[in-house]
Design brief:
3 helices, about 50% strand, disordered N terminus, mainly beta, signal, eight-stranded antiparallel β-barrel, 15 strands, disordered C terminus, elongated, about 280 residues, single chain, about 10% helix
Amino acid sequence: MLKKTYMCRYIFLSLLLCVSCAAFAQEPAGNPVTDAPEPVGTSNGYVPVYETSQDTAYVSGIRTEPADETPAPEEEKKKGAVYQGVYISADVFDPVLTFFNGGKFQFEVSADIGLWHTLFPVVEFGMMFYNPVTENYDYSANGFFVRGGVGYNLINNTAARKYDHAVIIGARYAYSNVTYGLGKAVIHDNYWQTDDEVSSGPVNADVGWVEVVAMVRVQMIKSFFMSLGVRVQFFPHLYKESVHYPTYVPGFGQYAEGVTNWNFDLSFCYQFPYKKKGGK
C-alpha cells in the first residue's frame, strides 16, 4: 500500500512539471532591448517588426547599428582606378655637376602618368650646352634630347598606394640632335717645327640609343616626391653614316661606337591631383 502511495505521488509531480513547462513555452519572449518596439501579434503568432531611423535599425525587436559606409580618405583613390595622376619631375643632378665637369651644362624634365599604380608611360626632354675650357683647342657640342618609354612598379601594395611610393624599372628609346664643331686646334709638326691651326664644323648629327632604367620614388610631403634613379645606356647609333661623330651627345654623354654609359638622376617631382569622382 505504501509503495502505491509513493508511485502515485511520483506520477502526479511528473504530470505537474510537464504542464508547467508547456505553459511557460507558450509565452512570447520579452524584448531584449527595452527601448525597441514590441512584436506585433497575429493569428499565426507574431511577426518581426522592421523599423528604421536615421541612426538605428530594429529587426525582430533586436537593435542593430548601421554599418559605416563612409570611405576613408585614403580609400578614395581605389585600387582598381586606372588614372592615378600625372608626375612632373626636374632633375637636379646634372645642373649641380656643372660646377665640377668643366663647361658642361645639362638639364632635363619629365612627365609620366600613373596607370593602376603599376604602369608609368613617360616622356623626357632635356638640353645640353658643352663648351670645355682648354688651351689647345675650342670644342662645342650643343643640342637637345627626347626619351620615351614605360616603367613598371614593383611594389603595388596597400602601403605603397597610400603614399604613392614606387620602385620602378623600365626601358627608354632616346633621340638626340647635336651640333658640334672644333676650332682653333693647334697641330705641331715635329719635322718642320711648325704649328698649324685647323678648324672643323659646325656639323649636325642625329643620334639614338636604348636605355634600361631603375628608379625609387618616395613621397616627402603631400604631392611632393623625390626620386633617385640609374640608367644603363647602350647601342648608340648615328642616323646617318659619317666619318665624323660627336665627342659628347646630349642626354648620353661621351660617344663612341659600341660604348655603354651609366648615368644617375636625382629629381624632385610634383604630382598633380588625381581625378576624383564626379570630376571634383
